[in-house]
Design goal:
Rossmann fold; 2 domains; six-stranded parallel β-sheet; 15 helices
């Protein structure tokens, strides 16, 4: 291939996130081939993020009926609803680009446009959609019924475009997709640059933290670390992760809850950490805690393992693919009991465990995932 090939990537890169990490890895792979892709969205990529991720990309502004920055301010249900009306089709895409990587299902491509869609979970997996119970979930249930019966015909933002080429982010989500749509999708794990994550053998003396590391949102269940702080006061606990502006009230509620429980002296918070702060914290973490149920994959778990932490994750979803050892997974009922067993492991046992896991996660390396994604582009180019 040569650098005259015009490649489009459709997603927002103005802030970090799991899907954004896939896009950044893809850009680096394209850059290594001498290709500078173009990001299509209604807000430009964050130049500091591009620089930190060592990525070069151009930008083409597309226009949604409702701007992204406006939708970001809405409550969850209304954001979900508004994105339906942001379904758009770029009719000139085939003329302007040779291939497109799509991370937004509401961006439709004209017939014959070479592309691949990367799917990371809902709303195409109805098993994972949460409406809530009783009156609280009534607005979402009404909305979903209206969408399925009326809106989806004109604005198919949350529909499976059967004519399109999809890949999906884990075997767990691939299984759910098959149940929902009767189609087997190939799996491309989210790429992680394992070369920059490492640990020193025998560094257990510096590992003093029990750390929750993910987005600090209610459905990730960071408050479960409070149960550990009450039952096992010998550790210092840390809740670390991204907090978008509309989630700041939830962070404050967690901080107040820790005060009310009398555990604030051993529970710390690190919202919106820098990349360096994440690495420094994980280097001091002995046990990484991930209580979310049915997580689609879980990139932060892979990063914690790569930095030498022992994972302790919920026994569900894509976490089973990352953490194959049953003793490091828990059910809700066995949460405290299973963690108590981890605390009794000797340093030799901990060392053997993390060395095994470090070898296991090589399957999630950036090179493997990016090669698979670029393979779809190569195959399309050869067919032209």
């Amino acid at each position: 291939m040569d650098d005259t090939k015009r490649i489009a990537i459709v997603y927002r890169l103005d802030r970090p996130g799991g899907v954004q990490s896939v896009a950044f890895a893809l850009i680096r792979g394209l850059n290594r081939r001498g290709i500078v892709p173009t990001i299509l969205w209604d807000v430009p990529p964050n130049p500091h993020l591009l620089q930190r991720q060592q990525c070069q990309a151009e930008f083409e502004r597309i226009r949604f009926p409702f701007p992204t920055y406006w939708i970001d301010r809405l409550p969850n249900t209304f954001r979900y609803l508004t994105w339906i009306f942001n379904t758009i089709c770029y009719e000139d895409m085939k003329r302007n680009y040779h291939f497109a990587f799509l991370f937004h299902n509401g961006f439709l491509v004209p017939a014959g446009m070479p592309h691949v869609r990367y799917l990371s979970g809902p709303p195409l997996l109805p098993q994972l959609e949460r409406d809530g119970r009783g009156l609280r979930g009534l607005p979402m249930r009404l909305f979903r019924a209206g969408y399925q019966r009326v809106l989806s015909k004109r604005w198919p933002a949350y529909e499976f475009h059967r004519q399109d080429c999809y890949v999906i982010n884990s075997h767990y989500t691939a299984g759910l997709f098959y149940q929902a749509h009767g189609v087997e999708l190939p799996v491309v794990y989210p790429p992680i640059n394992l070369e920059e994550w490492h640990f020193d053998p025998g560094d257990w003396m510096q590992r003093i933290y029990v750390t929750f590391f993910s987005r600090i949102v209610d459905y990730k269940r960071p408050d479960w670390i409070f149960r550990l702080a009450e039952a096992f006061p010998q550790w210092h606990y840390l809740i670390m992760g991204g907090v978008p502006p509309h989630r700041v009230p939830y962070l404050r509620s967690l901080q107040m809850q820790a005060e009310r429980m009398g555990i604030a002296n051993r529970v710390s918070f690190l919202p919106n950490p820098s990349h360096m702060e994440v690495k420094q914290t994980l280097a001091q973490t002995r046990f990484y805690i991930f209580p979310a149920v049915n997580e689609h994959f879980g990139m932060t778990t892979v990063e914690a393992i790569a930095m030498g932490a022992i994972p302790f994750v919920h026994d569900s979803g894509g976490q089973r693919e990352i953490v194959p050892l049953e003793g490091l997974r828990f059910s809700d009922e066995a949460f405290l009991e299973r963690f108590g067993s981890l605390c009794l492991m000797t340093q030799d046992e901990l060392e053997d465990t993390r060395c095994y896991l470090r070898g296991h996660i090589n399957r999630f390396s950036e090179s493997i995932a990016v090669d698979k994604l670029l393979g779809y582009m190569d195959q399309s180019m050869r067919a032209v």
